[in-house]
Amino acid sequence: MKDIFEKDLSGEMVSPDEPGYEALINEIFDTMETAQELATVSVRDQKRVHELMEKITGKPLDGSTTVLPPLYIDNGKPVTIGKGCFIQQCCTFFGRGGITIGDGVFIGPKCNLITINHDPDPENRSATYGRPIVIEDKVWIGINSTVLPGVRIGYGSIVGAQSVVTHDVPPMTVVAGNPARIIKKIEL
Q: Which of 3, 105, 110, 186 has CA atoms 20 to 30 A from the CA of 89?
């Protein structure tokens, strides 16, 4: 039988009424407290940023990656960040469903990566389920954009500012809008 963390990460419905939910919430609150500490760190002190990001994700952040605090994050253990990334300030990661960020990814300020959704049944609305987000190498996500649960953004793509990405984005494509739609292919 899966524990609540495995259940949560596998996309099954998780309810506040089930055993283990308190442990999940405690991990989330611990992560959020570490993120609050991260928010007090100078953007110039990437050594300390990396130490706190390792505490949040449970794995080292490559030295070539830059994270500018604050970063709002609920659960960092299911989050993986690649090499050579640049993550701007004031981003929000709801990582419970799993977030994979490839190499060389640029994420603009105020971007939201949201992997969790609520049960549509109003009688069970406090229950949640997750879907992973995958951002492939060399993607650029413009300022104040939101990527919703279950989305894969393909290699080299660009998400225009203030977009809401509800579906997969093919590689080497520019998308924009709410919901984000294909604007053009990137031709080199």
A: 186
Q: Which residue has the tokens 């991260």?
A: 38
| Separation CA 8–CA 128 (nearest Å) | 8
Active site residue 118: yes
The model's pLDDT over 102-140, given as tens digits with 9 standing for 90+, comes to: 999 999 999 999 999 999 999 999 999 999 999 999 999
| pLDDT tens-digit readout, 47-97 | 999 999 999 999 999 999 999 999 999 999 999 999 999 999 999 999 999
Q: Which of 2, 118, 181, 185 is catalytic?
A: 118
Tell me how far apart the alpha carbons of residues 34 and 40 are, in angstroms, rounded to a whole number.
10
